[in-house]
Design a protein that fits this description.
Blueprint: E1 2-7, E2 19-22, E3 25-31, H1 52-81, H2 85-94, H3 105-121, H4 124-136, H5 142-155, H6 157-165, H7 172-193, H8 201-215, H9 218-241, H10 243-269, H11 286-289, H12 292-301, H13 314-347, H14 354-363
Antiparallel strand pairs: 1-3, 2-3
Helix pairs in contact: 1-4, 3-5, 4-5, 6-7, 9-10
């Protein structure tokens, strides 16, 4: 459509006949293109009155549900497929080391394999979620899964590099810089925590967390909440108060944490180098150096779950084990008596008195 629009005075007019001035404003006639949306887009919320925020939250929840469901099915599928002879073949192939003096080379080849697989699937989460059940069933050792995970961290940087290379020429320099920052950050992590065996702290830390979670099931949820929600929220709240408050609170806490780590290491390695009081943590209240009191509180609060706790509560597990032991004992007793009765019938003799059976059962349950 032909419309009147304002233009800067310095702009050349298409024709002097179509330009005029009104005060400090210059007008001209230009063809303006307008778009009228005469049909609606085709999506599930096209006819709903929900705001964009509500639709976004619904889609976020659905996407997380689909993602978690896919990951759970991947784990279940791998657990069911990789058993028996297949598991033994994979175990021998992946966990095999090169002969001396090239033993160290296997870990770096595992990094390349992890980076390549992550580059193929374009997701480090999918790759690490796939190898996690393999570690759980013993197909891949923790020592071998560690370089695979480090390689996945390198492979996931290729997504950012590819996106940077697809940027327009005016922003290519800056987008490639931030993508390479991501790449070298992950490479520096490998240099810090892999080449020297003593610096492979994540392996020992993961074993400690795994053993703790195996003993206290609730610790996994507690760890996720603290490390991914409460701790970042705490640091963010302190940062809002200013750098002085952030450093004044975080530095003493960090120093206290480092001191605790050093004392724990010395208690295990060289306890005699410490003062007698610091050779163990018994001088502290039990709830400050043991998870047992917290476990008792949490398990007692979940005592109402009964038989519908899906195996989470220890009380349910204990009750289930006791019931299973009773059923097994009853079945063993019944089989013993039925066997004796059948033997008596075959011999044609009289069945022994019930008291004799009870005495035999009580004195020797393994006679059968």
């Amino acid at each position: 459509t032909l419309q009147n629009v304002t233009i800067p005075p310095s702009e050349n007019c298409t024709s002097p006949d179509f330009c005029w001035s009104e005060g400090n404003t210059t007008w001209t006639l230009k063809n303006i293109t307008e778009t009228d949306y005469i049909s609606k887009c085709q999506h599930i919320f096209v006819n709903s009155d929900l705001p964009d925020l509500a639709i976004g939250l619904i889609l976020l929840a659905l996407s997380l549900l689909v993602l978690c469901s896919c990951l759970i099915m991947i784990v279940k599928l791998l657990n069911s497929v990789l058993k028996g002879q297949v598991a033994s073949v994979i175990k021998k192939t992946i966990n095999t080391d090169f002969p001396f003096p090239f033993t160290w080379l296997a870990g770096y080849l595992a990094m390349l394999a992890g980076a390549g697989m992550t580059f193929v699937v374009q997701s480090s989460s999918v790759f690490t979620s796939a190898i996690t059940p393999l570690v759980g069933i013993g197909v891949i050792s923790i020592e071998r899964s560690y370089p695979l995970t480090l390689g996945a961290n390198i492979g996931t940087t290729t997504t950012a590099i590819l996106a940077a290379l697809a940027s327009p020429g005016s922003t290519l320099k800056y987008s490639l810089q931030i993508a390479l920052c991501h790449f070298f950050f992950n490479v520096s992590g490998i240099i810090l925590f892999y080449p020297i065996p003593y610096t492979r702290l994540p392996i020992r830390m993961s074993k400690t967390l795994g053993n703790t979670t195996a003993q206290y099931r609730w610790f996994a949820i507690f760890y996720l909440l603290v490390c991914f929600f409460l701790l970042p929220l705490f640091v963010f709240a302190l940062s809002l108060a200013g750098w002085a408050v952030l450093l004044g609170v975080c530095l003493p806490l960090f120093a206290l944490f480092i001191a605790g780590v050093v004392i724990n290491v010395m208690q295990k390695r060289r306890p005699h180098s410490l003062p007698e009081k610091l050779q163990n943590w018994d001088f502290l209240p039990l709830w400050m150096h043991s998870l047992e009191p917290w476990d008792n509180i949490i398990m007692s609060s979940l005592a109402f779950c009964g038989k519908h706790c899906c195996g989470f509560c220890k009380c349910c597990k204990v009750n289930a084990e006791q019931e299973g032991a009773k059923d097994k004992q009853l079945k063993t007793t019944e089989v013993y008596e039925n066997t004796m009765a059948m033997a008596d019938e075959e011999r044609g003799g009289r069945r022994a008195p019930a008291v004799a059976c009870v005495d035999k059962t009580g004195t020797n349950n393994t006679a059968l």
